[in-house]
Amino acid sequence: MKIRFLGHSGFEIKMKNHTLVFDPYISPNELASHINLSEVQPDFVLLTHGHGDHIADAEQLSKDNDALCISNYEVINWLGAKGVKGHPLNHGGKKEFAFGTAKYVNAIHTSSFPDGTYAGNPGGFVIWDDEICFYHAGDTALTLDMKLIPLTCPKLDFAILPIGDNFTMGYEDAAIAADYIDCPKIIGCHFNTFAPITIDLEKAKEAFKNRGKELILLEIGDSIEI
Ligand code: NI
Ligand code: MN
């Protein structure tokens, strides 16, 4: 499976012949200015919550590529009013799509749209097919609910966790989250985009190493194969 970091919490993930894009925040992000939006071509756009740093390019990417948006009920309604195709989930619900199964799971955070309106409650996604399973946590604090993931989903091969602190859990708590979700391989996100979430990357890697976990930190635009 090929995973490309699009900056902040944004990832492009290829599942067999389907392209999934999570939380696209590319055009407003100066750090991602080398990524051309027209080269990001999702079949599905998955949005963890309504904050601007997660949905900035959702409308354009969905429309330009005739992609299906997957998020909570409120986010899908809000985008639907703008003409975006969508499928709503709510917490604890899962659904089979062409790429595999998506389950919308709990996050401890807030959510509203850039225009200030209610965006429902924030979440994360667990995604799996017959070969691989991963978790994109969205924006969240460390929460005991994460212990439900290994009880209710296939074994995680990797997880994308926020590590930047201030608005989400920091890397110390994220390393504990890696234990809760029983996942050895973590890709960090939601760090170094803005001043309040600037962190020491070596210390972050150390925090995971101390718990026997691997923290992978990608450069914006870079890909890995898992
Ligand atoms: Ni947020
Ligand atoms: Mn955020």
**Average pLDDT, all residues:** 98
Alpha-carbon distance between the termini? 5 Å
| DSSP strand count | 14
Strand order of the largest sheet: 6-5-4-3-2-1-14
Strand fraction equals 25-35%
CATH topology annotation: Metallo-beta-lactamase, Chain A
Given helix and strand content, the structural type is alpha/beta
Bulk shape: globular
Bound molecules: nickel (II) ion, manganese (II) ion
In CATH terms, what is the architecture?
4-Layer Sandwich
SSE order in H/E notation? EEEEHHEHEEEEEHEHEHEE
Give the CATH superfamily.
Ribonuclease Z/Hydroxyacylglutathione hydrolase-like
Alpha-carbon Rg, integer: 16 Å
Fraction of helical residues = 10-25%
Question: How many structural domains does the protein architecture include?
Answer: 1
Give start-end ranges of low-pLDDT stretches: none
- Summarize the biggest pleated sheet: 7 strands, mixed
**Helix count, per DSSP?**
6
**CATH top-level class:** Alpha Beta
Q: How would you describe this structure to a colleague?
A:
With about 230 residues, the protein is α/β, with parallel strands linked by helices. It contains six helices and 14 strands. The strands form two sheets. It has a seven-stranded mixed β-sheet with strand order 6-5-4-3-2-1-14, with helices on one face. It has a seven-stranded mixed β-sheet with strand order 7-8-9-10-11-12-13. Helix 5 packs parallel to helix 6. The longest helix has 10 residues. The N and C termini lie close together (about 5 Å). The model has no long low-confidence stretch (mean pLDDT about 100). The structure holds nickel (II) ion and manganese (II) ion.
